[in-house]
């Protein structure tokens, strides 16, 4: 609602010169600009007619906008209408707007005339002259509106700065003689920050402030001071107050200053009250005596006081006293005023016909009495006691003096003080635990056990579940689930196992002895051509060497020979049992060599013996030397590597690396 | 305070140990040590890494189905402390642990059952192949091992001489 009376949105009104410039440049921008005498005459006419019509449209739009945006005095709230009359002079305002709309009509008729003329233009030159003339006349019309436009711009600026008063909301209106402390009161209650000075007419216009009371939003209006003289003599400043008083249905707070510190006598102030009394008719009114720090109603001499009281009684006006200096009574004044207004508004609503509609809808449901038993509200004795204790003082039965009642219960604060105060005392939160048994409160609750979270096992019915598990366990035992039925080893098997263990140990020993040897160059050590994995080589070699070593010592171990054969021929037992395997060793060797040579592709096609092979190796090495130097994989490797690897040639070099970055 | 499980190897993460990674979808991963963290960063799947509990479970190396395993559960409904309940729980935990250990040993025994025959065969083979090795004194083995290894040809010679 309040935004409805917000005049801040009116757009800036350009001066007449500016308006012309805006429109002419717009015509230049938005209509075609190229025309030639050689064009068809209809096209030329069309071209200039368009310019004239466009100019008319632009002016129309601008002027319409101006007249449309300013509030119409007949349509707005009478308070604003009157206020605008007081501030800007109704006649002047209406005239200016009228002139603007008149100018619009004139421009329309000019445009109409000249388009008609252009229709008969017989050359480009003539058409152009007609267009120039048309625009020229329009410009003249606008230039004549210079004063109206400047006036309207001023009005706009002033309007924008008017307080946005909502005429229909709950309002407290502060009025009275100048310098009586109206603005001070306003500043006390709201955040309006009105200027306060110790001289008259500090406030020169209306001010609005807002406050909350009873969860409602209230509007406070500070008015300029009014002097006591006839209406005709009032100046603009006073007239604003009068307007507000006349039109706003508010609670009026009439301020008087009994101390006469304001520079006006009590009589003058009371006279003013009587003069403007008609304006208060039908509104709740409070007479506020301000500056009671200086002089109160009670300090007045009896005749004056009686006079005032008689006056108040006659008009049904409430009296309130306050001081903006000591803050005494300020809130009381606000409360009385607001309550009066609420009452008045409610009363008015009740009297209006609309209230019946609402009342028809209302229904207060009452529960029906079940029986005759009285069920009054029950307040426990302890609660009443506590309430009584809360009222700090109580009369001591012995001395009869007023003493503070001892607190009926100890507070956490008291406990803290008892145990060394803040920073020393630690609140024991365990005391507040809600457990089945209070003895358990201080228990240290175990969290972990045997690498498990105890919380993961906590289960209200763990006992039953454990019992079920035990039952299952018994069943399993009965079923022989736990019985170890692995077959026992026979003495022979045990013997084998023991021997196998000894052999394994010996093997491990041999392996350890071998790996502790100082490493020799591979070629020397092995002397082998076929690259069989070293692990196998070692296993094959271990025992023959052993055999040789032992044979050299003259020990006779027939098993060794058999063993060797088994190693090289795939199982001595097979050889012993199968006559096919019972060949002479030399024969076997021949077969083996052939087999091996076929498998080893390096030896394929070479004569038996080392000589040719060695030669071949030598030559291979020689041919591979070049590619090896170039780190080629072989003859077929033609890959060209990156010649300038980015990572080696980019980035800044600081101290340090030039080759690796 | 509670013991968390390592995301990778499922071992216990004790308070103040290991590290925690909170992914931007707020899922929490805890690791018991840098090894697990590193493996996680390598995007390894714990089920495929042989040393993790997850692997052992999926590969059937650990007992996964048993009534003793039903007792330990993360519970999201808090239960008020009760001294009696706590006592029974502690007792129950000990007992459950015992039973579980027994069942695990049975599980292991069953898992290894088929090994016995194999083991016997291996022992037999070893004894058959290398009987003499058992009788050679340790010093001699060590001495022999210090001789250079023999080449193929030398080996043949050795055989022929034998
Ligand atoms: N002693 C005293 N002085 C006050 C009190 N209230 C206001 N004044 C003084 O009175 C003077 C005028 O106060 P304003 O609030 O400007 O009075 P006003 O009614 O708004 O005056 P105009 O705006 O000129 O009409 C200032 O110097 C205030 O300090 C009060 O309660 N006690
Ligand atoms: Mg003032």
UniProtKB/TrEMBL annotation, chain A:
Keyword Transport: no
Compartments where found: Nucleus, Nucleolus
GO molecular function: GTP binding; hydrolase activity
Top-rank lineage group of the source organism: Eukaryota
GO CC term (a single one): nucleolus
GO terms classed as biological process: assembly of large subunit precursor of preribosome
Classification via InterPro entries: G_OBG (IPR031167), GTP-bd (IPR006073), NOG1 (IPR024926), NOG1_N (IPR041623), NOG1_Rossman_fold_dom (IPR010674), NOG_C (IPR012973), P-loop_NTPase (IPR027417)
Gene3D superfamilies to which the protein is assigned, alphabetical: 1.20.120.1190, P-loop containing nucleotide triphosphate hydrolases
Domain OBG-type G: from-to ranges: 170-342
Annotated keywords: GTP-binding, Hydrolase, Nucleotide-binding, Nucleus, Ribosome biogenesis
PANTHER family documented for this protein: NUCLEOLAR GTP-BINDING PROTEIN 1
Role description: Involved in the biogenesis of the 60S ribosomal subunit.
Family: Belongs to the TRAFAC class OBG-HflX-like GTPase superfamily. OBG GTPase family. NOG subfamily.
Record's protein name: Nucleolar GTP-binding protein 1
The organism of origin for this protein: Caulochytrium protostelioides
TrEMBL record, chain B:
Keywords, alphabetical: Nucleus, Ribosome biogenesis
The keyword DNA-binding is annotated on this UniProt entry: no
Subcellular location: Nucleus
Entry annotated with the keyword Nucleus: yes
Top-rank taxon: Eukaryota
GO molecular function: structural constituent of ribosome
Similarity-based family: Belongs to the eukaryotic ribosomal protein eL24 family.
Protein name (Swiss-Prot/TrEMBL): TRASH domain-containing protein
GO terms for cellular component: nucleolus
UniProt xrefs under Gene3D superfamilies: Ribosomal protein L24e
Record-annotated TRASH domain positions: 6-44
Gene Ontology biological process: ribosomal large subunit biogenesis
Organism: Caulochytrium protostelioides
Main location, first listed in the record: nucleus
């Amino acid at each position: 609602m309040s935004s409805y009376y917000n005049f801040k949105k009116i757009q800036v009104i350009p001066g007449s010169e500016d308006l012309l410039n805006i429109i002419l440049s717009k015509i230049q921008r938005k209509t075609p600009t190229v025309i030639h005498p050689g064009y068809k005459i209809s096209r030329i006419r069309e071209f200039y007619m368009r310019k004239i019509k466009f100019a008319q449209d632009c002016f129309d739009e601008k002027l319409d906008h101006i007249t449309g945006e300013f509030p119409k005095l007949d349509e707005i709230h009478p308070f604003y209408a009157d206020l605008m009359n007081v501030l800007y002079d109704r006649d002047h305002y209406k005239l200016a707007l009228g002139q603007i709309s008149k100018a619009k009509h004139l421009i329309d008729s000019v445009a109409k005339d000249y388009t008609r003329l252009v229709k008969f233009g017989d050359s480009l030159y003539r058409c152009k002259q007609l267009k120039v003339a048309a625009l020229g006349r329009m410009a003249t019309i606008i230039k004549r509106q210079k004063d109206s436009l400047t006036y309207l711009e001023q009005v706009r600026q002033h309007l924008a700065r008017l307080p946005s008063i909502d005429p229909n909301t709950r309002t407290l209106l502060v009025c009275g003689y100048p310098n009586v402390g109206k603005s001070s009161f306003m500043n006390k209650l709201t955040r309006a920050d009105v200027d306060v000075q110790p001289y008259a007419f500090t406030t020169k216009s209306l001010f609005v402030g807002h406050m909350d009371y009873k969860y409602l939003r209230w509007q406070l209006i500070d008015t300029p001071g009014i002097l006591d003289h006839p209406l005709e003599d009032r100046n603009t400043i006073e007239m604003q107050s009068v307007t507000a008083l006349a039109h706003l249905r508010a609670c009026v707070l009439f301020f008087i200053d009994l101390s006469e510190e304001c520079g006006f006598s009590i009589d003058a102030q009371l006279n003013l009250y009587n003069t403007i009394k008609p304006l208060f008719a039908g509104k709740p009114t409070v007479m506020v005596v301000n500056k009671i720090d200086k002089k109160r109603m009670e300090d007045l001499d009896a005749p004056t006081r009686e006079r005032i009281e008689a006056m108040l009684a006659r008009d049904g006006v409430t009296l309130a006293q306050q001081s903006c200096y000591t803050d005494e009574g300020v809130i009381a004044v606000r409360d009385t005023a607001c309550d009066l207004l609420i009452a008045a508004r409610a009363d008015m609503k009740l009297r209006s016909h609309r209230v019946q509609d609402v009342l028809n809808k209302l229904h207060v449901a009452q529960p029906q009495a079940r029986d005759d038993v009285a069920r009054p509200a029950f307040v426990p004795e302890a609660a009443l006691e506590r309430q009584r204790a809360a009222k700090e003082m109580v009369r001591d039965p012995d001395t009869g003096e007023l003493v503070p009642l001892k607190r009926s219960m100890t507070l956490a604060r008291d406990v803290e003080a008892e145990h060394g105060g803040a920073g020393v005392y630690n609140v024991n939160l365990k005391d507040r635990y809600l457990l089945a048994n209070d003895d358990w409160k201080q228990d240290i609750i175990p969290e972990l056990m045997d690498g498990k979270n105890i919380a993961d096992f906590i289960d209200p019915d763990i006992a039953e579940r454990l019992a079920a598990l035990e039952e299952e366990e018994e069943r399993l035992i009965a079923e022989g689930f736990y019985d170890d039925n692995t077959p026992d080893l026979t003495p022979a098997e045990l013997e084998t196992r023991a021997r196998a263990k000894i052999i394994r140990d010996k093997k491990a020993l041999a392996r350890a002895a071998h790996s502790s040897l100082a490493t020799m160059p591979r070629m020397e050590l092995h002397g082998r051509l076929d690259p069989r994995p070293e692990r196998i080589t070692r296993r094959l070699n271990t025992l023959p060497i052993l055999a040789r070593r032992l044979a050299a010592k003259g020990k006779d171990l027939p098993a060794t020979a058999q063993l060797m054969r088994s190693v090289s021929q795939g199982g001595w037992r097979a050889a012993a049992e199968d006559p096919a395997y019972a060949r002479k060793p030399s024969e076997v060797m021949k077969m083996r060599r052939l087999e091996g040579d076929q498998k080893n592709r390096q030896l394929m096609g070479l004569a038996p013996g080392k000589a040719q092979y060695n030669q071949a190796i030598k030559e291979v090495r020689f041919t591979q030397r070049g590619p090896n130097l170039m780190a080629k994989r072989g003859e077929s490797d033609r890959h060209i590597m990156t010649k300038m690897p980015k990572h080696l040639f980019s980035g800044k070099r600081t101290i340090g690396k030039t080759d690796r970055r | 305070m509670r013991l968390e499980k390592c995301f990778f190897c499922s071992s216990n993460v004790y308070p103040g140990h290991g590290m925690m990674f909170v992914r931007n979808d707020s899922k929490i991963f805890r690791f018991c040590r840098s090894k697990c963290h590193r493996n996680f960063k390598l995007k390894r799947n714990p089920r495929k890494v042989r040393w993790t509990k997850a692997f052992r479970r999926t590969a059937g190396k650990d007992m996964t189905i048993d009534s003793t395993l039903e007792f330990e559960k993360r519970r999201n409904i808090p239960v008020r402390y009760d001294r009696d309940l706590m006592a029974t729980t502690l007792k129950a935990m000990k007992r459950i642990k015992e039973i579980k250990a027994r069942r695990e040993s049975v599980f292991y025994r069953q898992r290894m059952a088929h090994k016995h025959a194999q083991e016997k065969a291996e022992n037999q083979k070893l004894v058959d192949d290398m009987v003499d090795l058992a009788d050679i004194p340790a010093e001699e083995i060590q001495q022999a091992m210090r001789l250079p290894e023999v080449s193929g040809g030398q080996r043949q010679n050795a055989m022929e001489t034998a």
